[in-house]
Amino acid sequence: MTSSPPSFPPSSSASAASSGHRASIFRSERAAAALLLVAAILGLVLANTGIGPALLDLKATHLPIPGIGLDLSIGHWVSDGLLALFFFVVAVDLKHELVRGELDSVKKALVPGIAAVGGVAVPALVYLLLTAGSPYGRGWPIPTATDIAFALGVLAVFGTGLPGRIRVFLLALAVLDDLIAILIIAVFFTHGSNLLFLGLGVVSVAVTFGVGRLLGRPGSSLRRGMLVLLVVLLAVVTWYLVYRSGVHATIAAVAVGLVLPLSPARKAVHALEPFVNGIVLPLFAFAAAAVVLPSVGLGQLSPVFWALVVALPVGKLLGITIAGGVASRVFRDPDPARRSQVLSFGELITVAMLGGIGFTVSLLMNELAFASAHEIVDEGTLAVLLGSGVSLVVAAVLVTVLRRRSRVGGR
């Protein structure tokens, strides 16, 4: 006689299935990109309607936590607080690629790494050239970023059936680009560091590392649950200490993501992914894009606007294509089997245009670079949206052309 599986109430089962389906949607690269785009458009549109002033006032409303020195506006709670979860996910993905993925050897990382450096350096140079003689040179980091979620989302929507090497190269490029962006934020957007809080933050990261090692040891579910809660508490404490130190608080999330063992960290990412893709990133995009369109002529816009509009699509295209192309030739793999993974010129240009979709990190850098000049922040936001939009449209066309050629060629 065999025992039957335990039964559950239909409503409970249906609810669980529905919840799981919703979570799987928010893990989709296509859905993540679509939500980001819709949220940004919605924020920009609403900010320029009758409810715009109330929306901007709400964004600027402060929600302090008395007694511990935290006094952030709602906008900063989103960009400094919630966005830390996104940077935690980025850090864990980076660690995975470095340890077990497409960047786990120097040979694998060399070409996309050089392409990523080119994709950072050239947009920064283009920006500096176009803003030369103005007081806005500190905005050079803004066009250096690539939005992983958006770029992969566009590739997923328009590039069905393309060779896997394109996604692999884009992923490696974007991950390394994010690593550079994290370093830029840590080095160039740190002001008035408090060494006491910074030292305590380092201690907190070290304790997190130790507790994380305990997670990898066998034990009861109760013990494991207590350790998970302790890690979460330590992560919050680390965020607070890093914020109080003057270093941008998202760096705390990066540090925690890098020191945790890969297995439990990836489980945490799996649990957080629907929340980050479905709420955190769209909320940040909505808040960042909620700016009033300047009531001036095109000729009165600051050099920042024009520099960013050009630097994102053109700078990324030139930087990634030239650096990646040269690196592919100089460091050509002698193994014929590996040569099939080298991108063609057309594929490299397509990846370069996808790299021009700056969006999330570019919007964050824009806020950090011009924190004391709100009108420049607004122009920079519009420029990031426009420059990323141009990159998105051109990349979508190029991906579509590649897909059609791939089908015709039987590849």
From TrEMBL:
Subcellular location: Cell inner membrane; Cell membrane
Pfam families the UniProt entry points to: Na_H_antiport_1
Transmembrane segments: 31-54, 74-94, 109-130, 142-162, 169-189, 195-215, 222-241, 247-263, 275-298, 304-327, 348-370, 382-402
Protein origin, superkingdom: Bacteria
Membrane topology note: Multi-pass membrane protein
Reaction(s) the record says it catalyses: Na(+)(in) + 2 H(+)(out) = Na(+)(out) + 2 H(+)(in)
Cell membrane among keywords: yes
Keywords: Antiport, Cell membrane, Ion transport, Membrane, Sodium, Sodium transport, Transmembrane, Transmembrane helix, Transport
InterPro entries per the UniProt record, alphabetical: Na/H_antiporter_dom_sf, NhaA
Family to which this protein belongs: Belongs to the NhaA Na(+)/H(+) (TC 2.A.33) antiporter family.
Its job: Na(+)/H(+) antiporter that extrudes sodium in exchange for external protons.
PANTHER family: NA(+)_H(+) ANTIPORTER NHAA (PTHR30341:SF0), SODIUM ION/PROTON ANTIPORTER NHAA-RELATED (PTHR30341)
Descriptive protein name: Na(+)/H(+) antiporter NhaA
Organism of this sequence: Frondihabitans cladoniiphilus
